[in-house]
């Protein structure tokens, strides 16, 4: 006869295995965040404010210079002006994504370009994986662009 200790141990093992199987592999998660960030950036390029809003968590925090935009409604209000003209005032694309081992949070970062294609800043976004598997931005903050790589010096004879 099965006693409660064995049943509880078996149930705990099954739950742990199920939770482990439910978290995709790290590379798959990174690919998901790269895709989410690219779709987010595409919303700006395509001037699709509704699509932009679908990437932002309800409790998000975006930094806009010295101002902090707290919550989805404030972020959308603060970013609406960037969508008013027919041409995007800037663009961005991720060049690096890292995901926590838990598979619940990720950082994406990359260059921000002006309409002429010059790098003018770097974006840094924190994404949170939702229960349905979608990734939403919860924190966003720009920073100055990376400094240029030092030039190699010729070797002296």
Furnish the topology, listing elements before pairings.
Layout: H1 4-22, H2 26-45, H3 49-53, E1 56-64, E2 67-70, H4 72-79, E3 91-92, E4 96-99, E5 105-113, E6 119-129, E7 135-143
Explain what the structure shows.
This protein is α+β, with helices and mostly antiparallel strands. It has a single domain (24-143), classed as Nuclear Transport Factor 2, Chain: A, CATH 3.10.450. 33% of the residues lie in helices and 31% in strands. The protein is built from four helices and seven strands. The chain has helices at 4-22, 26-45, 49-53, 72-79, and strands at residues 56-64, 67-70, 91-92, 96-99, 105-113, 119-129, 135-143. Strands 1, 2, 3, 4, 5, 6 and 7 form a seven-stranded mixed beta sheet that branches. A hairpin with a 5-residue loop joins strand 5 (105-113) and strand 6 (119-129). The longest helix has 20 residues, at 26-45.
- State Rg: 21 Å
CATH secondary-structure class = Alpha Beta
- How many runs of DSSP E, i.e. beta strands? 7
Number of domains: 1
Q: Name the shape in a single word.
A: globular
What letter string, H or E per element, gives the SSE order?
HHHEEHEEEEE
Kindly, what is the distance between the CA atoms of the first and last residues, rounded to a whole number of angstroms?
A: 84 Å
Protein traits:
4 helices; 7 strands; alpha+beta; 157 residues; Nuclear Transport Factor 2, Chain: A; single chain
């Amino acid at each position: 006869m099965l006693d409660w200790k064995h049943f509880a141990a078996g149930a705990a093992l099954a739950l742990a295995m199920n939770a482990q199987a439910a978290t995709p592999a790290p590379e798959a998660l990174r690919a998901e965040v790269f895709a989410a960030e690219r779709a987010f950036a595409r919303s700006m390029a395509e001037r699709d404010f509704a699509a932009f809003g679908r990437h932002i968590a309800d409790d998000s925090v975006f930094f806009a210079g010295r101002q902090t935009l707290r919550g989805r409604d404030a972020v959308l209000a603060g970013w609406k002006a960037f969508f008013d003209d027919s041409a995007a005032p800037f663009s961005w694309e991720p060049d690096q994504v890292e995901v926590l081992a838990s598979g619940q949070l990720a950082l994406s970062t990359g260059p921000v370009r002006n309409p002429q294609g010059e790098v003018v800043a770097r974006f840094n976004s924190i994404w949170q994986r939702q229960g349905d598997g979608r990734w939403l931005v919860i924190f966003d903050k720009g920073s100055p662009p990376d400094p240029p790589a030092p030039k190699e010096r010729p070797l002296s004879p």
